[in-house]
Amino acid sequence: MTSSKISPWKETLKSIIAESIKETNLCPPMQLSTINLNVKRPANRSVMFRGFLGENQGNWEEERKMEEYLTEVTSSVLNPKFESDLLTITTDVRSTKVSQLLKNSEFEICWWFPSTGDQFRLSGNAYILPSPSNPLYKDFHSTNLLSPYLSQVIKFNWEQERMKYWYKCSSEIRATFLRPPPGQPILLEPGETEKQYLRQLNAISTDEEDKELVKQALENFGIVIFKVYFVDRVELYCENHKRTTWQLKKSDIGNDGEEEEWVERSVYP
After folding, report:
1. Which of 78, 4, 38 shows the shortest CA–CA distance to 263?
2. Is residue 187, in this structure, part of any structural domain at all?
3. Cα–Cα separations (whole angstroms), residue 164 to 49, 50, 149
4. Helix (H, G, I), strand (E, B), or coil: what is residue 2?
5. Residue 186 lies inside a defined structural domain of this protein
6. For residue 127, is it within any domain?
7. What is 33-45 written as a DSSP string?
8. Residue 59 C-alpha from the chain's centroid
9. Residue 249's domain is classified under what CATH number?
10. For residue range 102-161, what is the model confidence (pLDDT) as tens digits?
């Protein structure tokens, strides 16, 4: 058993993601489970990993263009870049996974990498970051969320972070946030065909009509941030298989209170 204040599983996971992308040109989807309190059972779906909060995810030229965009749309100093183990996805804030996580923030992710034979299970608590004008914003409790990763207290611009993810979405994905709420029934009269919705949407527009569409879509666009407390990795392509767990625990550090550290264990698969 070993312990560490820095998440020891993150670099391993990043290297496996990189290997998977190298082999298949794709990052496998994550299987996200939430709790459906209405029927008292788990709800599972596939979601796409959008990177670790605070980190660069593109080349220098892409980052430069994005920073110019963020400066234009938020009119504020750019947030600092920092290393974190906070996983992120983008979402429609009207979706059932958001409503379920707002009622019970606990989650579990199962992530299978066929190119390396690794399975990761990650569990913890989720945070929903919607538009500041959305009523759900009052439920975004970001206090101390970044304290393990930033050496000093700063005024972090969460809207700028949300806009960064919006910019990185494809125009096709941005357009989906103009559609009716996910899961809403399609009700058609006899002979009526389904409405054709906009297929592409720019991150920003100078056209007044398009500006309104961007505004509407952004109201439905959000980020889910996953704070992980437990990780279970199984390696199935090695001899006899191998399994490792990491758990974030409080550690007594004397008069200064408590501090969190990761405890690693090798366990039977």
Report:
1. 4
2. no
3. 15, 11, 19
4. strand
5. no
6. yes
7. EEEETTTTEEEEE
8. 20
9. 2.30.110.10
10. 999 999 999 999 999 999 999 999 999 999 999 999 999 998 899 888 876 578 999 999
